[in-house]
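Student: Please help interpret what follows.
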Amino acid sequence: MAGIHRDTLLRWLRQHAIPEPRRDRRGWRVFTPQEAATIVAFARGDGRAAARAIPLDDETAIARLEAIDWDFAAANTAYLTHGLHPYPAKFIPQIPNALIQELSSVGETVGDIFCGSGTTLLEALQLKRHAVGIDANPLAVLISKAKTTPLTVSEFEQLVAHRIACERMLGVAESRAGDMFHDGRPFKSESWRPAPEICEFWFVPHVVEELAELRCLIDGVPDKSARRLCKAVFAAIIVAVSKQDSDTRYVRREKTVEPGDTTRRYLSQLDAAIFAVREVSDLIEDRFSCEVFDEDVLDAPETEPFDLMVTSPPYPNAYSYHLYHKTRLIWLGYDADRFKKVEIGSHRKYSSKGRNRATPETFRREFMQIFQWLRERLRTRRHACFVIGDSTIDGDRIDNASLLASAGATAGFREIARIGRKIAPTRKSFNPRIGKIKSEKILILRKE
């Protein structure tokens, strides 16, 4: 229509000479007829069409959000680095993508105060926003930074060299008695490993040796960003090669993990990660930043102001991240007990039998404090979005969206929309004793 090459169109978008359109669930730009007409006019030399996007009013934005099919049943949720690391109960990227597009503009800052595996942060960056994340789980901070950090040519070369070193180690670790150069002794690493009681309870001996050697090789990667990616890949395989049943079941079961399987799994994950980070490195522009804070949001961390906040907070009594990530935290050298003490919503706190056990009012009070802090961080008349479902506490169904709306009202946040969605049966698995959550709400509050 405009008579221009695709590269020219992309250059104009990067230069903000024409408005950035919405993106669909695959991340493709979708131009309306009016936007297309603006571009045609600009291509023909109409200087008045050199545009900036006109912000939508709340009523129009909410109407468009309510028209979306939020189930996203057939959507690809593992594009870019979204599949870098398993993270139970994370929300799918299409949800923050839609909220960011409708409720913020290019160049603004999007925050996620329970950033988890960095879903909101990555979507904000690819939609040309700055991103700020906060999480008390050091593993979440590691994953979020690894997912959102582009790498340089030099850092990719370091990853290739690291991979070669791991392959050499694999050749030794998987050698068997029938091999010509095998000396009859099992592979043994001289590197650091967790306390013996952790190793013996959760891992077979040869897995411990391979994990120890992999961790040593990772520590030898020179640059921090490349090393961080390797650590995230390392953490991603630990539960699979341990005796822990799964990411959502903290019980032991025997698994068949042969010598060399641990390293092979790591190399496979590393290859996928390198491919995904190359895509991210090509996509994200240097002018957009992402900062992730390893802090408890109840401690009121000092961050830059937000233009939009999008998060999926922990559901009370639904999950204990410190427990199911415990072996990962220990192998990475993190303080699992520190995170355990500050984790909001953990099943451990709500299932306690003591007089200090947490209750729905505990959850509400914690968020009253969070909203007072958020009021200082979020700009006036901008939005705070929460994706949250119900909980079961002492046999009672708890409407968490209403709890959040009530807590927000005490700090001047007004509810302007509450949209329901169904959760795919394969997602959001929680403690089976409190039931599987089948739906959740997208709660949109506005700071008055």
